[in-house]
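Supplementary material to the annual report.
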Amino acid sequence: MEIKALTIQSALAGLRTKQFTAVDVVGACLTNVKKFNEDYQALLAVVDEDVLMAQAKDIDATDYSLPLSGIPIVLKDLFTSDGIRTTAGSKVLEQYVPVFDATVVAKLKAAGAIIIGKANQDAWGHGSSGENSDYTPTKNPYDPSRVPGGSSSGSAAAVALGMCLAATGTDTGSSVRLPAAFCNLVGLKPTYGRVSRYGIIAMASSFDTIGHITKTVYDNALICEITAGKDAYDATTSEIPVPQYTNKLDIKLQGVKIGLPKEYFGLHGMDPRVSDVTRTAIKKLEDLGARIVDVSLPHTSVAMACYYILVPSEVSSNLARFDGVRFGNGRETFGMEAKRRMMIGTYALSSGYYDAYYKTAAQIRTLIKKDFDDVFGAVDVLVAPSSPTLPFAIGQKSNDPVAMYLSDIFMCPVNIAGVPAVNVPCGFVGDLPVGMQIIGPQFGEERIYQIASIYEKETQWYKKTPKI
Amino acid sequence: MVQEDPKNMNYEPIIGIEIHVELGTLSKMFCGCPADHFGKEPNTQTCPVCLGLPGALPVPNKKAVEWTMLLGLALGCTINKESKFDRKHYFYPDLPKGYQISQYDAPLVRDGVLKLKVKSHLPANTTHQALQAGKLKVEEEKSIRIRRVHLEEDTGKLQHAVIDGKRVSLVDFNRSGVPLVEIVTEPDFRSTEEVDMFAKKLQQIVRYLGISGADMEKGSMRIEPSISLRKSEILNPKSETNSKFKIQNSKLPDYRVEIKNINSFKFARNAITYEIERQTEMLEHGDTPTQQTRGYVEAKGVTVPQREKEEAHDYRYFPEPDIPPMRFAQEQIAKSKEQIGEMPDEKKERFIKEYGLSEYDATILTEDRLSAEYFEDAVKCQKSKARPPARQVKSQEVSSKTIANWIINKKVDRASVTPTQLLDQIIIAAQSVFVSGDELESIVTQVLDGNPKAAREYKNGKEPALMFLVGQAMRLAKGKSTAEDLRKKIIELISK
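Predicted assembly:
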């Protein structure tokens, strides 16, 4: 069977109508792992085949009534998984095997999912290309000379390569949406506080959101229904009830107001081919009945500066526990990017500098949040390109951290504001995918899924799988 | 210009303290592990949260927050309507996250006053005659300002051991994450005694509130005094307090010496006394003590340097992103206020007024809440008509004062004697004593006068003579006194 083209929705249908078994599905995924992992470096750990097959057999003995019965899933390596090595993509945790499951992992398991393995990533989530992995960088399934986007690089590649039907990711500044965009997939960055962070190795705690990557909007909404919700172990999760997103995907676009942030469209350095593809997609939304209006997010120009003060500050704090006393390897094993962020963050929090850096950035954050609040008073959602460029060549930006940081220019402000956004495939330039972001107000996942779903039904870009 | 000779100067101690109290909540500050760690097998009360495992998150203990507010209100402080937790970063092997969750610029509680009764500050020109004539008040009220009360987590504990001939340090994380309240005063203390009084009073209040055992030996209460000296115009800096006027107008010294983690009242007194002497000596030699952190060495009774100012940490505080900020409604604060109940000083005043007790008795009875409650229960029993009279015990009026005397003097075991039983005991005892002290004395005098020979024999060491005299007295008393009371009185009068 061909996993690359299989969605969770069709897999569940096939299992429930006895067209194939969970053993078939898991077996096919493992075949792809064996076939592609060495070349593409999508996974850092694969669960023992016997264990996986036993789990699949157990599921095959049921009537597949759980929401994810027998669905193979890969976890980003920041997700703590009981008994499965969890490295965060870093050599510091090379030998770390957790003793508990992250809340999201426990929820996925309880929903019947089968955890295939752990995905490669930029170490600690620091990066936009996957090249900051302390292991070997992941390659883009659509063009192995290019990056798959990061930091959830292995997660996106694993889905595109058919090693699983979905993969989890974290999004602190782009890390789910960018790899989804670069690998022609649907990637959700939920509202901050919508999905529990418990058991996910923290990058920047007030920015981290727990998302996932799938082929279709339906699949994505299905997983969100399972992972989202209040968690007694995460004080920042919200009590707001989680809607059944999958039951509400069919709406009409008539009367829906879509805002285009003008600061995101006239950007210097934007690849005109990406602009064109995005414009075409927006035209499509308009044809489907949406009203397109220009809006402004006036503090966009200072968003990256704000982000790169606050995030490293929290990074420096969150990495303090890896002090060499526990978890195996010492501090000298940290990679360059982690060291860079620790030093920037430590500096920004130091006495005498705190007011000029951290405090000022925190004030700017409030202004950026207000930008989004204001704009969502006027429109239902925002649409913007996911990346200013196509997937870039491996090595192209790795010696220029600032150029690398600017890959996330359309995405970081969303994390600063805490609002949800989803990447949907919106076309190709040659064989390289282009993604578009649909950004919603706080806890507006339902609305962004609806719009993404209508667009996806009309365009079906997800059907164009990598030529491998 | 007259040069000041340091040897002729007097130095006045300026002391502020920080007190840490571990709260007696069931669970730890940010996880569900039991908070009672004392004497437990190492690392048996831990979880991913208090071990600081990657991905674990803190969820604040509501009770600990409420109790901190209670303590703040009991100390007459203001509750901050908006408060938050912050991360305080430093490296130490017993701190598993590399930072401690504490509170920085928005503590739960701020600005309060605790009043002490201290020896009066006497004017510099006080004469001995004036003191001896009792014209000056010897005791006066002194206010110690409380700067803040905040909530944080305790750290793990290091144990240094030798295993297989190797010196190793082991970490026990049972204490990691236990809720810890820190009370910080202004530098308002001027003597060791004041610090001692304050610490004991704070311990009493904490115990009254029932929020901690505040047991110094178990480490659930720790004191950290900061001491410096400044030039003074008053005669004897060690025992005298300064006037308000001076506090406001004199500049504080530009250094202070902090003594870390003292775990007994006695050690605190000794450490402060030692430090005052050490600094006085330095100043008298024309040296200025440096800003330092010192430790108290119990065995030697001295303080030793641990860290200089230059080595001070930059804690890089910033708001704890894992815990949303806290907001408290006025009604919530008012509700907490109702929960405080009567504090020791109020209770003492009421006991004096309501029951006519002496200040001494009232102080002893209100030392802890349980004995005060026991006393009041007994008084209530006495007043209650519903009290079923014990067999053989005729109901009889017993004064509150008598009840207080019994509790204080007979050291009543509250666990085994109910207040009702106590009343019965008092009544039985009262009924068995029929003769007054004067009557007893006249009976014994009669016996001794009537039996001079026996009296002489007893005086010369013949023990049986005493038995004879007691027998004679019993006959005269006609059962209105006990043999024991008569025996005591005979011995007393003979030996006069």
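Chain A touches chain B through 43 residues (CB under 8 Å).
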